[in-house]
Fold this protein.
Amino acid sequence: MIRQVTITPHMCGGSSSIFAQLGDWTWEAVAADCGTNVYDARTADGHPAYLSFYYFHVRGSAERHPHGLTFGDELTVSSRVFDFGGESVLTLHRLSTSDDEIDPVEFYENPRPDGIYVQNFNRWISRSRPDSNEELVRSAPPDFRHEHLPQLPPQYSPRGIASQARKNGTFHPSGVPGHTLAETFDTTYELDVVHDFNGVGLVYFASYFSIIDTALLRLWRRMGRDDRQFLARRVLDHKLGYFGNADLDSRLRIAIRLWRDDSGGGAEVADVAVREIESGRLLAVAAISLLVEEA
């Protein structure tokens, strides 16, 4: 699928808007390729089924990165959907000025410097209890067609990366090679009914980006950095694993370890874990590679 896109105000800036738009493009691609109405999918028992985000990976460059987009940028979005069985699906996107089809080898091994690359690994889920966002269960709609989709080469599968991050509570259990731990920071966050929930009452997938950025900004300010520097940061790589959802009254604890590149140059990695305070459940894990402007 190829789209010609002009970046509009709702798709850019310091918020999670661009990630929300990327997720919408994933749903559109899956709906087109799999013959399923992802917006009103149902299980075999007639209960709502949701194409949830399990692993979200965005790769940029110093030349083009997610928070560097602005009004009027004209880009081509190339999208491909891959078979991952009857309960999951993987989608790749490339945002660039090229209008050819995205290739997995390019995505994983030879990215173009003017491209933003996106990998979405989605799983079908449904509620196990109608009044709770906990204990969501896998449940695909019976009309979900996937056998005709291309197979992703197994060396590129995100299953292992995501499962290890869930097991370890981090993408970097042994630290970040070539980096030194510079800061640790814990903060709390109360889910916002106005901003953080989608139209079916689940914590919106894009809200996790803004929740994590809110915590990162608090650390930023504690370090004496200003907000303009935060807006100017370049996100070169952002991995986010979604491992749970939460109810309306939930409070979260967000732990950040900030790793600084030993060679200097403003490169840092934020290693983030999000847990529900009351239960201790791990809800999300992120690893964000940044380039920071000097003050």
About this structure: The two ends are 42 Å apart (CA to CA). The first strand starts at residue 2 and ends at 6. The chain has a mean pLDDT of 90. Helices lie at 17-34, 104-109, 159-168, 205-222, 227-232.
